[in-house]
Amino acid sequence: PLRDRRHDRTTPAGGARLTADPFRSVAETGPCRTRRRPPRNARRGKRAACLQEAARGDAASSYAVQPKGADMPLSLNVIRERARAFAREWTGESSERAEAQSFWNAFFNVFGVNRRRVAVFEQKAQRFTGSQHGRIDVFWPGVLLIEHKSQGRDLDAAYAQATDYFAGLKDRELPRYILVSDFQRFRLHDLESGERSEFPLAELHKEIVRFGFISGYQTRTYKEEDPVNVQAAERMGKLHDALKAAGYDGHALELLLVRLLFCLFADDTGIFPRQAFHDLIAQRTSEDGADLGLWIGRLFQVLNTPDDKRQTTLDEQLAELPYVNGKLFEEPLPLADFNAQMRGLLLDASQLDWSRISPAIFGSMFQSVMDAKARRNLGAHYTSEKNILKLIGPLFLDGLKAELDKAGNDEKKLAQLHRKLATLKFLDPACGCGNFLIIAYRELRQLELEVLTRQFARQGSVLVQVQDHVLVDVDQFHGIEVEEFPAQIAQVAMWLMDHQMNQRVSAQFGENITRLPLKKSATIVHGNALRIDWNDVVPALALDYILGNPPFIGSKLMSADQREDLLAVAGNLKGAGVLDFVSAWYLKAAQFIEGKATRCAFVSTNSICQGEQVGILWGEMLARGMRIFFAHRTFRWNNEARGVAAVHCVIVGFAQGEITPKRLFDYQDIAGQPHEVVAGNINPYLVDAVDVLLPNRSKPICDVPEIGIGNKPIDGGNYLFTTEERDAFIAIEPAAEKWFRRWLGSDEFINGWERWCLWLGDCPPHELRAMPEALKRVEAVRALRKASKSAPTQKLADTPTRFHVENIPDDNYLVIPEVSSERRDFIPIGFMSPDTLCSNLVKIVSHATLHDFGVVTSTMHMAWVRTVCGRLKSDYRYSAGIVYNNFPWPELGDDGKHRAVIEAAAQAVLDARTQFPDATLADLYNPLTMPPVLVKAHAALDKAVDAAYLAAEKSAGRKPPKLTTDAERVAFLFERYQALTELLPAPAPRRARKASRAPG
């Protein structure tokens, strides 16, 4: 005998197949013909009458007969009638010992399920209390445990006895549901939700929805964190690894896994007769797995063969499987050779409840089975539903819901909306495993279900032939994916979601819907979206929405092929070489929808709406007539998986021409919830302000000190020392001590680290000649520069004591770190004396005043920085050309009043810092450790700077703006920028950075 691990029962070798009719006494096929105990004489007459009624087609008694294929889901309407007949027959029964097993056989049959296929009687199990072992009345491993008592017995005691058996069960066998009954009462416990329901036998027909886990009509909430998603992916991953290690690899392995995914899902969701796939593997294949590949190959052939084309002699277990079509099983695959371990892995996968799998996230998890390293952190490989809804809501879903609300119960308007839903077309040109398409399809089907419910809600209005009224289908959805395996997953996942939504419709209207054979499918094209014509996927004129999450790859991280792809789309766009990879999808979408009403929305890294890229990308987008109609400003894109680096993203919705209202979603905390505002205009920086593109300027637009970079040695580290290294050098070369200067980069400035520079640029020749150790360093720098492949660097070898870039102020100057953590409310900025040299990792402002320090360290300036600066990962990257030189400074009156107030407040900030001499700037500006006195000083400085701006507006006769949020501050600053630059000459174009077409 073979051990069936899901059912924990012994089945005859050769696969004896029991009928679905609990009243037939003999197995239909197989060498072992098992005779079953006939019903008791006292009940034969009543049951015979029921059988006669059923034979005449009386639906009220049809629970007693199982037609061919009865394991396929029955309609809820039929189940209700069966439940009524079941209740009539068993009313008055009271003896557990005499009739319990017949009762439960008939109970399962109410739902069209052969009890033998899912559950066993009298399963032996160890108990927590009392005797060492007991027997579970009815046991469905992992799903249901039933404890039955005679009429009138205590159901609380029955429940306690049921849970007592848990001691003897394996973890995977622990049930979700416990059902206790005394014939006339049912009490169902959902151990996952904690819900308990109790009702009499006579009301079973009213409560059948509670038994959706039996009938297949179960309304589920699919949770991203449901462990079954991870367990399923892990088990499939192990099977993948075993097959690959045995030499079954490439396209064949990928397609085999996708087909097995479909079969596993079909086994638990009513597409196949219940557990037919599992039973076929467990009962008909040898334990050593030698014939498993043959059975699977035959199974795939059968699933691809219409019923009327199948041989009449086809094995019964194969014959009961439906014709699937959809070309899923069309391509012949080489037979895979399995062994006992692989067979066990497949059975392990089949033991999970695949009806709980969420196609929306499992596809990405399933893709990760192809990468054993990625599989160690499966939670990192899916796009969360919450983030997908952030995009599809404003793009189309919210508008459709508003139309539904407006339609109310007006049948004409509902019918019009229904037709609209059925004609919408969607494209995800970087679809991956189809997450965005799957969620969009689910939401569209959910809207359609609400429309149908309202259309047929009138008293006396009946919806029959429900399937004919379901118009929304998967063929409205299109995708492009550069990798074959995720494209295949997306195709299948759309069918899985379609089936789940059909189950919801079936549950709503009580009529079973299964779209088999598959006649329609999503169009998922395996190809390079940046190289193919999207019209070949879906005609532009037919397309309503483009959506998705194109690859997050920075400009400097692209491969040579990816850069070629980007430039193929960008054409002659000046400066395209600095664009991130995602920009190519924006540009191609803009080209595709030009002159059309199509709306687009992409998730992107926030870099495309900050820094230098804005002017390049959005200059072209605006020139093509694209306008942003909704946007999510920067938020953290993660899924709480351990070890997953958060990506800071934006969502941008755009179309050609104006669309109103314009919706802007802002985040006070980038990890929190968005706050929505209606905007007058959303510009490329995702601010409610005029469309402004900041050029990379060489000089400030206001009369303020110029900013520059620090020093760039190109010395191979020969002139740079730690404190210990400096002291050791001076011990050998005492004359060099006076030539050492403190050296600051961003890290040294913020974190208080000591580094030193041996500055010999001003050292007289005779003194340098007297320092042999210093001369060794000079010679090393000279040799390094001469060996360079760069001609300008080679030329620097002629002056080895000098730096490549030198910026050495002769007075106190401001230091602004080029890179600073986005967690800080303020970039740490400070004054430095001329005896300290700065590296090129900071910006320096020579001859700066307290007023200058006060403005650049204010919240007003920081709001500007957060909006327009570039980013290094998520950190601020302060630039001269974009941030400082384009910043609109406050216009000060002639009386000097506001200047004096700002200077006093700026000095107070510096004074507050000096109260903590042992604290670094990192300590002082950490949001968790920032001293209250410093917080208070900054608040006073903000007030002074804001007052200067407001006074200037009032003086000019303009309405003073609100300056309470970053969005309000930056909107105001953009207006001031526009006013200040209208009369300025256009900035001289900087030499475009040439896009490298190959590494190096």
Structure description:
It is a single chain. Helix 2 (76-90) runs antiparallel to helix 3, helix 13 (359-367) packs antiparallel against helix 17 (435-455) and helix 31 runs antiparallel to helix 33. It is elongated, with a radius of gyration of 36 Å. The strands form six sheets. A nine-stranded mixed β-sheet has the order 11-10-9-12-13-15-14-16-17, with helices on both faces. Strands 3-4-5-6-7-8 form a six-stranded mixed β-sheet, sandwiched between helices. A four-stranded antiparallel β-sheet has the order 18-26-22-24. A hairpin with an 8-residue loop joins strand 16 and strand 17 (675-679). The chain has 1000 residues and is α+β, with helices and mostly antiparallel strands. It folds into five domains: 2-215, no CATH class; 227-380; 385-474 and 482-518, no CATH class; 699-708 and 812-960, no CATH class; 713-804, no CATH class.
- Which class of secondary structure composition applies to the elements? alpha+beta
Number of strands: 28
Question: In what order do the strands lie side by side in the largest sheet?
Answer: 11-10-9-12-13-15-14-16-17
Number of structurally distinct domains: 5
Q: What is the molecular shape?
A: elongated
Taking all residues together, what is the mean pLDDT?
Answer: 84
Unreliable residue stretches: 1-71, 375-381, 639-644, 990-1000
Rg computed from alpha carbons, rounded to a whole number of angstroms: 36 Å
In short:
With 1000 residues, this protein is an alpha+beta fold. It has 34 helices and 28 strands.
